[in-house]
Amino acid sequence: MPDTTDGGGFLWGAASAPHQIEGNNINSDWWVREGQVPGLERSGDACDSYHRYEEDMRLLADAGLNSYRFGVEWARIEPIPGEFSRAELAHYRRMIDTALGFGLTPMITLHHFSSPRWFAEEGGWAGERSVDRFVAYTEQVTGILGDVPYIVTMNEPNMLAMMLTRDRLTVEDQQRSGMWQSPTVDTDHRVKWPAPDTGIGEALVKAHHAVRDVVRANTDAAVGWTVANRAFAARPGAEEKLRELEYIWEDLYLEAARGDDFVGVQSYSSVWVGEDGIEPHPPHPDNTQVGSAFRPDALGMAVRHTWEVTGHIPVVVTENGIATADDTRRIAYTEEALRHLFAAMDDGVDVRGYLHWSVLDNFEWGHWAPTFGLIAVDRETFERRPKPSLAWLGDVARSGRA
User: Which residue among 41, 189, 318, 378 is least crowded, i.e. fewest CB within 10 A of its CB?
Assistant: First the structure.
């Protein structure tokens, strides 16, 4: 049994993304998207965590967890090109200090899907200045990150590349395929997401490597990025198709992490690959609120695959969870996922932490219905209501076993 107690230095915590919980991120491209795309709900005030972050952190610490992954929002820090807000930098520094004060190891994400609206308008990640823009932003932000132990340059670049690939399609194509909904929700099982364009992926790799150098020059943090791992499994005869899709969807990004200090694994479910490609998951009573299969074993698959492809870079599980209104199901899912994680660790995979997704029931990129949180939030009063799963995970953290 691996030593996952706090004394063993293992991170036990939960994760969030700024746009999904802070509220009123009006200078971001996602705020613009919410007003343009039919069928998307607005983030609005979100969970008001911009003002209530101390309460969120206190609940995590009181439960017995020792880490919190949260992001800094580029759109707030650089609302117009080249103009950096000292007030916003000070705000995020207060968040870091608050986490440290509660005994929570902060893991900071520099980019979690949302970008400044001006960045998108000048071409976004496909623009000629994208790497320089990201580097300039990072140079400013690292001024407040000197004592942060873990920094994530970019969240799920493979999913970001898929979204950017989708955005190249016409409006009519997106509406016909159902792709005008959240990239993380497929409850009607008719969406066929485009494979991430490898050219976009390579541009994101370039940005990651450039920013990684800035982080290392300006901080003592371990630096890496997180990859969405779909835990592909091949039908008989589809092994070659599996390898092809794994490279496009994951391995390009995992190979780019070989020079990192750690790699973040983000796992929720597993996907079957047939000879014709990815098989759509059919409706089923056991499906989660976002339409995925109930597959807690996917975490072990994801961790093992990542460990192999990266050439044994240390792993942190930076997201793992389930969209469900039934908290007993959340506990059952997490308990089994952790058993598979511990088995991988017993087999030699170097795993440094487990951060559950998510801290709060939050804005799921266009939808409010899916609930991933360890803590419920009243959307009228913003009252936080911890679920039994939060206390359960705290007990696991203290004991080191599920």
Answer: 378
Helices of type H across 142-184: 157-167, 171-177
DSSP state of 283: P
pLDDT at 58 (0 to 100): 98
**Range of the structural domain that residue 93 is part of:** 6-397
pLDDT(100) > 70: yes
**Structural domains of the chain, count:** 1
Q: Is the pLDDT of residue 179 over 80?
A: no
pTM, full prediction = 0.95
Task: Give pLDDT, residue 167.
Answer: 83
Residue 402 counted as domain residue: no
The proportion of the chain whose per-residue pLDDT surpasses 70, expressed as a percent, equals: 93
Considering the domain boundaries, does residue 1 fall inside one?
no
Distance CA 240, CA 238 (A): 6
Cβ atoms within 10 A of the Cβ of 123, count?
12
The answer to whether residue 181 sits within a structural domain is yes
Mean pLDDT (the chain, rounded): 94
pLDDT of residue 54: 98
Entry field: residues in the chain: 402
Query: Which residues are designated catalytic?
Result: 156
Question: Do 153 and 225 touch, CB atoms closer than 8 A?
Answer: yes
Would you give the DSSP letter of residue 279?
P
Residue 14 lies in a domain: yes
Kindly tell me the sign of the dihedral angle through the C-alpha atoms of 277, 279, 201, 163.
positive
How far apart, in whole angstroms, are the C-alpha atoms of residue 367 and residue 387?
A: 21
Alpha carbon distance 336, 353 (integer Å): 16
At 166, which CATH number? 3.20.20.80
**CA angle centred on 164, ends 222 and 287, rounded to 5°:** 80
* pLDDT value, residue 171: 53
